[in-house]
Amino acid sequence: MPSLIAACKFVGTTSLGLFTGASYSLAALSIPALLALPSAKPAHHVLISLKQTASLHLRSLAVVSLLSFNLAYALSPARARHPYLLWTSLVAGLAAASDLIPGQSLPSQDQDDVNGETVEKAVKSSQTLEQARATIGFAGFAMAVIGIWGDGA
Q1: Which residue has the higher pLDDT, 108 or 34?
Q2: Domain residue spans in the chain?
Q3: According to Swiss-Prot or TrEMBL, what is its membrane topology (predicted)?
Q4: Distances in Å between the alpha carbon of 112 and those of 41, 42, 115?
Q5: Cα 153 from Cα 148, distance rounded (Å)
């Protein structure tokens, strides 16, 4: 049983670390690069595609982390139920729920006439959201690493 608990902690920490890294790379590299595209239409299509794909993967990583930390807490004996597992799980849940925050709405993918200013605002809004998501993820990742180090697991 102790190895299952340690595995849950490891999976939760790793998935939260991947979540943080992916959010950071979206905020720092991928999303700002869309502003360098020659016109608004390709930037619009790429932004919609990027947001849909990234959202699916980021939400999956956050949910895996949330479930892993909750399972580690539930399986731990009473003397080893460290509150950091719940706090880290809560942060992973906040990271997963960050998709529910309404951002700059874009016209549908099928629409041909796209305003460059609207796309620029949506790109900036998406970048801000990803920066916030990366910060939340980093806070959870730091708690998980410190908690695992403190447990000795």
Answers
A1: 34
A2: 2-151
A3: Multi-pass membrane protein
A4: 7, 10, 10
A5: 6
CB atoms near residue 76 (< 10 Å): 19
Q: How far apart are CA 20 and CA 89, in angstroms?
A: 14
Place of tokens 């993918």: 109
Q: How many helices (H) and strands (E) does the chain have?
A: 5, 0
Q: Determine the 3-state secondary structure of 21 from DSSP.
A: helix
Token pair for 16: 């939260």
Query: Residue 83 and residue 150: Cα distance in Å, rounded?
Result: 12
Q: How far apart are CA 75 and CA 98, in angstroms?
A: 28
Let me know: does 54 contact 22? Beta carbons within 8 Å. yes
Q: Using one digit for the tens of pLDDT, what is the confidence trace for 31-60?
A: 999 999 988 999 999 999 999 999 999 999
Q: Give the whole-angstrom CA distance, residue 122 versus residue 51.
A: 11
